[in-house]
Amino acid sequence: MPVPTAKMMSLNGRVVPYDQCLLHAFSGAVKYGAGVFEGLRGYWNEERQELYVFRLAEHLERLRYGMRVMRLEPVYERAFLEDALLAMIRANGLRENIHLRMIAFLDGDDELAATGPVGLVCGAVPRPRSKAVEEGVHVAVSTFARLADNAMPPRVKATGNYLNNRAAELEARRNGYQGVLMLTERGKVSEGSGACFFMVRHGALHTPDVASDILESITRDTVIALAREQGLAVHERTIDRHEVYAATEAFWCGSGYEIQPILSLDRLALGTGAPGPVTRALQRAYFDVVEGRTEAHPEWRTPVWGNAGRAAA
Ligand SMILES: Cc1ncc(COP(=O)(O)O)c(C=O)c1O
Fold first, then answer.
1. What would the CATH number be for the domain defined by 132-290?
2. One of 7, 31, 131, 157 is an active-site residue; which one?
3. What is the pLDDT of residue 224?
């Protein structure tokens, strides 16, 4: 079923109807998969009548970093990116939970070494919480290695990178799993196709470090901060595949995934095989903060409608 993208989009800073949001079929984005993107979420708070975009500043900075690294020139100013996104949300009158996508792409009919012109597209999709957040998922280790940093940059959300993730995800689904965990070329745990991995062992949280060919995930950073606020030790380090089988709990996280319990890996139950107490406590803290049901971390929530000022308070 096609995803119901909201009817107004943003193209190069202008709000346009969905069916007029077009680029040429011979653009660099199509010929070479040349682009960088962001996936963000907006959370509707009924009580405050406000829509909060979560960690907008960090997403925009990562997009700008991605444009620089992938040599898309010129790199858009943060204010231009923010205005384009917020204008599109407002043009749609969105007052519900949404997923947002921004793509800076290589436009124009030029060859491989072109660096511009660069287009920008933003769109929104209404997206309620996935049932996987409550129920958890069964995951397989991929036979495809995570792409290595000296080939393609995993810490950049480059569109072309995602052919690696797609191959892994399709393989897992063919084999009856709900998700996939990729290993680095050296066989160490890396990340999911759209989420960063965490496990609980000996009462502490462990997650692959940023040199394990992962995206430097904004949700990962959020989870680490919330866990430490709960008094939990967090270790960012190299993780072996066989350590994961010994985990008492595991989950993965991302803007799109939010926090989803991982119940088994390769059909081996992790812990009790049910969502564990550490995962549940972090989910509660996470949803409180993204939905603005706490006064904590107001700097992470950008209000779209201006009902509550920048802070949730
Ligand atoms: C490969 C990959 N890893 C991790 C994540 C999580 O990143 P973030 O928390 O910044 O959304 C994403 C995107 O959501 C991703 O595409």
1. 3.20.10.10
2. 157
3. 98
